[in-house]
Amino acid sequence: MSYWLFKSEPSKWSWEDQKKKGAAGEEWDGVRNYQARNNMRAMKLSDKGFFYHSNKGLEVVGIIEVCKPAHPDSTTEDPRWECVDVRALYDMPKPVSLREIKANPKLAKMALVTSVRLSVQPVTEDEWREVCRMGGLDPAP
DNA sequence: GCCAACGTTGGC
DNA sequence: GCCAACGTTGGC
Protein backbone atom coordinates (compact mmCIF):
# COMPACT_ATOMS: atom_id res chain seq x y z
CA MET A 1 0.00 0.00 0.00
CA SER A 2 1.30 3.41 -1.00
CA TYR A 3 0.04 6.84 -0.08
CA TRP A 4 -0.36 9.93 -2.23
CA LEU A 5 -1.62 13.48 -2.27
CA PHE A 6 -3.78 14.97 -5.02
CA LYS A 7 -4.13 18.71 -5.44
CA SER A 8 -7.15 20.34 -6.95
CA GLU A 9 -8.41 23.87 -7.16
CA PRO A 10 -11.87 23.73 -5.58
CA SER A 11 -13.23 26.09 -8.24
CA LYS A 12 -12.35 23.43 -10.84
CA TRP A 13 -12.88 20.16 -9.00
CA SER A 14 -13.76 20.27 -5.33
CA TRP A 15 -14.07 17.69 -2.61
CA GLU A 16 -17.86 18.14 -2.85
CA ASP A 17 -17.68 17.36 -6.57
CA GLN A 18 -15.59 14.29 -5.83
CA LYS A 19 -18.01 13.04 -3.17
CA LYS A 20 -20.96 13.42 -5.54
CA LYS A 21 -19.34 10.80 -7.76
CA GLY A 22 -19.63 8.31 -4.94
CA ALA A 23 -18.21 4.83 -5.11
CA ALA A 24 -17.95 4.92 -8.90
CA GLY A 25 -15.24 7.57 -8.62
CA GLU A 26 -13.93 9.77 -11.38
CA GLU A 27 -10.87 10.17 -13.59
CA TRP A 28 -8.13 12.36 -12.19
CA ASP A 29 -7.66 13.86 -15.62
CA GLY A 30 -5.95 16.94 -16.93
CA VAL A 31 -2.49 16.24 -15.53
CA ARG A 32 0.14 17.38 -18.01
CA ASN A 33 3.26 16.96 -15.99
CA TYR A 34 5.54 13.95 -16.32
CA GLN A 35 6.39 13.59 -12.67
CA ALA A 36 2.75 13.70 -11.64
CA ARG A 37 1.87 11.23 -14.38
CA ASN A 38 4.65 8.88 -13.30
CA ASN A 39 3.27 8.97 -9.79
CA MET A 40 -0.15 7.95 -11.09
CA ARG A 41 1.41 5.14 -13.14
CA ALA A 42 2.98 3.84 -9.93
CA MET A 43 -0.37 3.68 -8.13
CA LYS A 44 -2.06 0.40 -7.36
CA LEU A 45 -5.71 -0.38 -6.77
CA SER A 46 -6.85 0.70 -3.30
CA ASP A 47 -3.83 2.94 -2.67
CA LYS A 48 -4.98 5.85 -0.51
CA GLY A 49 -4.54 9.56 -1.07
CA PHE A 50 -5.18 12.91 0.52
CA PHE A 51 -7.45 15.31 -1.36
CA TYR A 52 -5.95 18.80 -1.06
CA HIS A 53 -7.58 22.10 -2.01
CA SER A 54 -5.05 24.42 -3.65
CA ASN A 55 -5.46 28.15 -4.28
CA LYS A 56 -8.59 28.42 -2.12
CA GLY A 57 -8.75 26.54 1.14
CA LEU A 58 -5.15 25.34 1.23
CA GLU A 59 -6.01 22.30 3.30
CA VAL A 60 -6.33 18.54 3.19
CA VAL A 61 -10.08 17.98 3.19
CA GLY A 62 -10.54 14.28 2.61
CA ILE A 63 -9.25 10.85 1.78
CA ILE A 64 -9.63 9.09 -1.54
CA GLU A 65 -8.84 5.66 -2.86
CA VAL A 66 -7.52 4.58 -6.26
CA CYS A 67 -10.37 2.62 -7.83
CA LYS A 68 -8.89 2.16 -11.31
CA PRO A 69 -5.20 2.00 -12.20
CA ALA A 70 -3.52 4.23 -14.78
CA HIS A 71 -5.17 4.38 -18.20
CA PRO A 72 -5.19 6.92 -21.05
CA ASP A 73 -6.54 10.35 -20.08
CA SER A 74 -9.86 10.70 -21.87
CA THR A 75 -9.50 14.48 -22.12
CA THR A 76 -6.67 14.33 -24.65
CA GLU A 77 -5.70 12.42 -27.77
CA ASP A 78 -2.08 12.65 -26.72
CA PRO A 79 -1.04 9.12 -25.68
CA ARG A 80 1.60 10.44 -23.28
CA TRP A 81 -0.98 11.40 -20.68
CA GLU A 82 -2.51 8.86 -18.38
CA CYS A 83 -4.49 9.04 -15.19
CA VAL A 84 -6.10 6.91 -12.50
CA ASP A 85 -9.68 6.96 -11.21
CA VAL A 86 -10.26 7.86 -7.58
CA ARG A 87 -13.24 7.77 -5.24
CA ALA A 88 -13.96 9.62 -2.03
CA LEU A 89 -13.61 7.55 1.14
CA TYR A 90 -13.71 9.85 4.17
CA ASP A 91 -13.98 13.49 5.12
CA MET A 92 -11.20 14.84 7.29
CA PRO A 93 -13.07 15.41 10.58
CA LYS A 94 -10.85 18.49 10.92
CA PRO A 95 -9.23 19.68 7.66
CA VAL A 96 -5.46 20.03 7.94
CA SER A 97 -4.17 23.33 6.62
CA LEU A 98 -0.92 24.01 4.81
CA ARG A 99 -0.01 26.33 7.69
CA GLU A 100 -0.30 23.52 10.20
CA ILE A 101 1.67 21.19 7.95
CA LYS A 102 4.45 23.75 7.57
CA ALA A 103 4.46 24.32 11.31
CA ASN A 104 4.94 20.61 12.07
CA PRO A 105 8.63 19.61 12.02
CA LYS A 106 7.66 15.99 11.32
CA LEU A 107 6.22 17.13 8.01
CA ALA A 108 9.07 19.38 6.89
CA LYS A 109 10.01 16.96 4.11
CA MET A 110 6.52 16.53 2.70
CA ALA A 111 6.41 17.14 -1.03
CA LEU A 112 3.60 19.59 -0.37
CA VAL A 113 6.21 21.79 1.29
CA THR A 114 9.28 20.99 -0.79
CA SER A 115 7.75 20.53 -4.28
CA VAL A 116 5.18 23.25 -4.28
CA ARG A 117 4.14 22.82 -7.88
CA LEU A 118 3.83 19.05 -8.10
CA SER A 119 0.11 18.27 -8.31
CA VAL A 120 0.22 14.51 -7.64
CA GLN A 121 2.77 13.57 -5.02
CA PRO A 122 3.90 10.64 -2.91
CA VAL A 123 3.32 10.68 0.85
CA THR A 124 5.34 8.51 3.23
CA GLU A 125 3.62 6.24 5.72
CA ASP A 126 4.83 8.40 8.62
CA GLU A 127 3.53 11.55 6.96
CA TRP A 128 0.25 9.80 6.25
CA ARG A 129 -0.25 8.85 9.89
CA GLU A 130 0.75 12.27 11.15
CA VAL A 131 -1.61 14.19 8.86
CA CYS A 132 -4.44 11.76 9.67
CA ARG A 133 -3.80 12.26 13.37
CA MET A 134 -3.84 16.05 12.95
CA GLY A 135 -7.08 15.78 11.01
CA GLY A 136 -8.81 13.75 13.70
CA LEU A 137 -8.51 10.36 12.00
CA ASP A 138 -6.79 8.19 14.56
CA PRO A 139 -5.95 5.44 13.87
CA ALA A 140 -5.17 6.30 10.26
CA PRO A 141 -7.27 4.43 7.69
C1' DG B 1 -2.72 40.71 -8.24
C1' DC B 2 2.00 39.66 -7.56
C1' DC B 3 5.80 36.93 -8.06
C1' DA B 4 8.96 32.86 -7.00
C1' DA B 5 9.72 28.38 -8.49
C1' DC B 6 10.11 25.51 -11.99
C1' DG B 7 8.79 22.92 -16.24
C1' DT B 8 8.76 23.37 -21.32
C1' DT B 9 10.05 25.11 -25.78
C1' DG B 10 12.93 26.32 -29.36
C1' DG B 11 17.05 28.66 -31.41
C1' DC B 12 21.70 28.00 -31.89
C1' DG C 1 23.09 19.77 -25.42
C1' DC C 2 22.83 24.40 -23.61
C1' DC C 3 20.26 28.04 -22.10
C1' DA C 4 17.20 32.13 -22.66
C1' DA C 5 12.52 33.04 -23.09
C1' DC C 6 8.22 31.94 -21.88
C1' DG C 7 4.16 29.83 -19.57
C1' DT C 8 1.99 27.82 -15.52
C1' DT C 9 1.28 26.73 -10.73
C1' DG C 10 0.12 28.07 -6.46
C1' DG C 11 1.17 30.53 -1.99
C1' DC C 12 0.88 34.93 -0.17
Written account of the structure:
The structure is a single chain. Strands 2-5-4-3-1-6 form a 6-stranded mixed β-sheet. By secondary structure, the protein is of the alpha+beta class. The N and C termini lie close together (11 Å). A hairpin with a 5-residue loop joins strand 3 and strand 4. The relative contact order is 0.23. The protein is built from 5 helices and 6 strands; from the N terminus they run E-H-E-H-E-E-E-H-H-E-H. The model has no long low-confidence stretch (mean pLDDT 94). The radius of gyration is 14 Å and the shape is globular. The chain has one domain: ph1033 like fold (Roll), CATH 3.10.590.10. The longest helix is centred in the last third of the chain and has 10 residues. The structure holds a DNA duplex (12 and 12 nucleotides).
